[in-house]
Amino acid sequence: QVQLVESGGGTVQAGGSLRLSCVASGYTSSRKYMAWFRQAPGKEREGVAAIYDKGMSTWYDPSVKGRFTVSHAQNTFYLQMHSLEPRDSAIYYCAASSGLVSRPLSSSGYNYWGQGTQVTVSS
Q1: Which end of the chain has fewer CB atoms surrounding its CB within 10 Å, N or C?
Q2: HEC sequence for the chain
């Protein structure tokens, strides 16, 4: 019933910006978490940013803090990315929880996942 669909990925030049969107269907985000994860070739999936209860609280990985911003509006979860670097290149996944999460940037706490969208930052 719950479906997450990401969009907005693409190829950008280093220093550029990109905005990812995640449309959630059949999902109510009240008192739940939504997050963005990414996985680059040869690397483990890592938490990028998370949001609780439609924006009540947010979390960011140190590597993106100050450059990325999460937000939520209606049925869409966003990840605004600025000052992109080649190391940001990865497949980005949207995720949603079914309840409380102990560690917002840990993938184990999430039940629903999107298909992923590719972000490539050229140097």
Answers
A1: N
A2: CCEEEEECCEEEECCCCEEEEEEEECCCCCCCEEEEEEECCCCCCEEEEEEECCCCEEEECCCCECCEEEEEECCEEEEEECCCCHHHCEEEEEEECCCCCCCCCCHHHCCEECCCEEEEEEC
Two structure tokens written together for 122: 């050229």
Both tokens of 6, joined, read 């990401």
Residue 123: name the closest of 67, 84, 92, 90 by CA: 84
Structure tokens at 42: 């040869």
The CB-side HSE value for 60 (13 A sphere, CA atoms) comes to 14
Q: How far apart are CA 112 and CA 99, in angstroms?
A: 11
d(CA 8, CA 62): 23
What local confidence, expressed as pLDDT, does residue 28 receive?
87
